[in-house]
Amino acid sequence: MDEKTILRARDFWTSIVLFVASLFFLFQTSKIPFFNSASAGVDSAQWYDSAALVPFGIFGILLVLSIVLFVISIRDGGAKVALSAVGLDIDLHEIKRLFSISLILAAYIFALVPRVDFIICSALMITALIWGYHRGFRPVTYIATAAVIVPSLYALIVNFPQSQWGKPHDDDWFTLVSFLALTATMFVVEFRAKKIDRVIKVTPVVAVLCPLILVLAMAFGFRQNVPNRTGLLFSQIEYNYYVNLRPLWQGKK
Amino acid sequence: MIDFVVAQLLGFSSALYILVVDPITYVYLIPAVFLGIVFGALPGLTATLAVTILTGFFGNKFPLDQALIALIGSYVGAIYGGSYPSILLNIPGTAASAATSMDGYPLTKKGLGGEALGLTTTASFIGTLFGTFCLLIFVWLLLIVSKNIASPEKALLALFGILLSGTLMSQDLVIKGWISGLIGLAMAMVGLDPLLSEARYTFDWSYLLSGFQVVPVLMGAFAIPQIMDGMREAIKLMKVPHVGRIRPEAREVGRHMPTILRSGAIGTGVGALPGVGEDVAGWVSYGVGKSMSKEGDQFGKGSKDGLISAEAANNAAIGGALIPLLVLGIPGSPPAAALLGALKINNVIPGPTIDPALILHIVAILVLASLTMLLMGLLTAKIFIKILRIPQTVFLPVVMVLTTIGSFSVGGGINDLFLMIGVGLVAYAMNKMHYPIAPLVIGVILGGLFDETFRRSLLISDGDMTVFFSRPGAAILLTLNVLLVLSQIPAIKKMFAGLTDKFKRKVVK
């Protein structure tokens, strides 16, 4: 099937999503005062300076364009093939791979970074992505995804509320064990397959050094905020920096 | 006029001198240009990403004049760096260098890779200087004109930027570019509105009251799709061919000087169009070169003229892209949009009120950055060639960590990361369906300006819509907007095509 028809099949669905989204946001916009808005008994706006004016225009035009896209997709034969996987050019293997990448990234951002030490969780994510996708072997991809998902679920379930994010918890240890286990598995599997190449050798070094250097540079060099300062490793680094190292080069020790 | 140019050059010389004698300049400049070239050279990483990531790092915690050295240095480096994989591997490192591969790779196959890299380096250097010179001159002329620009013109100009970007950046249907721009505009509507502080689409989440922050949106839109796309494909081992001497012959450069200057002019012009950027500049210049060059029939088969046409133009576009950015606050390219993000978080408002010293400082940085790029390109090219051997699966996870910490540090904390990944997933889906991402980002950046100035125009005129065509500037801009939209309507397109055919036949008769 040619690329244009595949694109039009996807456009068919996109136009429906856009149409529904435009309607939803037009409804939301209707809640913003438009004609003769008044609050606390005082006239606050005319239609021409209402906060709803531009959004009405945007979502109105989006609605029209979604209809135009819908018509184009039907005219170019997209609608005919829109219900088949072939028409949408869906490759199940590719979808699985993409889904697992999305899962790892989402777990890293939504579950790990807010709750777990940044160096440890980044090391785990880097190892999982490099090893899991370096050669594209499906079992390896599944192991790597699981190694990120399991500690993420633990951190998410045990320390879900935002009030718990900044406090030290055992989810740091859980993630650290997961990282070590994944690294060990990687070496065992690759050693057995006799495929230990330069990328495999360098993975743990990149995984640990990269976030470590970045966090140190950001926190102590660039003096910027870093995620989870109470994390297992960073709290120790910060403590030793201010209590032992800094006084040392300031001549106070 | 000559007095004006001389005064400009004197002001620029003074700014350049201050920059050159300050040792801190080199602390920022050398690593930034190096990092930029690396980002450009690694397929999957882009100039926009380099500037965006550094914006996250330098944010608003560093003095702006120092942060700008790093940001502009990486911008210049990355646009040039994209030529390495284009020439050696036939894989464009950045979209800006896609046209470079047309002749760069055939030259490598002929065993002239080293010479091609040398020529590219020099052409990029001269192209950047050309664009910078135009920036120095035209930015002031336009600033004088822009003093007469009021809210109606600003609103129409912002709209023109989004529409033009959507029109020119679309690979598939033009309406996809417009939809992308509208989604960006819609995203800019989130939060308290700028005139009445009315909460819009916050869904009772206090984080959204301040609207979508620029840096996480940029990171999400440009980094996450690159990471997902790069990781999606299994390892591709890149065999980098042997490259000989990387030093261009002065005679060879002299022979191609007309092409370099022509491409520089095209690049600057295209770069100055709001929201268009270096990739379009490269292709337009390549197309013009093909029709104008004596060796036009050799384009695509390893023509040095073809190579230079693309490379000089994409680097000249940098200076061009900064003209609308500094004059009107409308970015000329996606990396310039990231640069605008950096200016915004430092509370610098580009436009008629911009500090003149800042413009001269930027021009001086551009000159120094292009010189650093030239030296690095000629002396350390072998390092960049070695970097091409690093597989995407190794550096993309590192980029993920970079974007995460960069996005987090700008100020919004964890919520900014949620926004980044959300925008990233949407941008990835849009990429797959051939929706350009640049109009979305430009929509997010210009949406606030459009909303405020559009409503302010109506507020001042008491709701009278004639304010958008009773002023000469506004009337011209409104006409441009209308023509841009009309020109994409199929019926009108057909009508124009028919008229053109008739005209051609009459001319032939």
Automatic annotation (TrEMBL), chain A:
Keywords, comma-separated and alphabetical? Membrane, Transmembrane, Transmembrane helix
TM helices/strands, residue ranges: 12-30, 50-74, 95-111, 117-133, 140-161, 173-191, 203-222
Say if the entry is tagged with keyword rRNA-binding.
no
- Signal sequence interval, chain numbering: none
Top-rank taxon:
Bacteria
Q: This protein is called what?
A: Tripartite tricarboxylate transporter TctB family protein
Species annotation = Ahrensia marina
Q: What is the lineage of its organism?
A: Bacteria, Pseudomonadati, Pseudomonadota, Alphaproteobacteria, Hyphomicrobiales
Automatic annotation (TrEMBL), chain B:
Keywords attached to this entry: Membrane, Transmembrane, Transmembrane helix
Protein's UniProt name: Transporter
Q: What is the lineage of its organism?
A: Bacteria, Pseudomonadati, Pseudomonadota, Alphaproteobacteria, Hyphomicrobiales
Q: Does the keyword Repressor apply?
A: no
The reply on keyword Transmembrane helix is yes
Where does the chain cross the membrane? 26-55, 67-87, 116-143, 177-196, 208-228, 358-381, 393-414, 434-454, 474-492
Residues in domain DUF112? Answer: 28-442
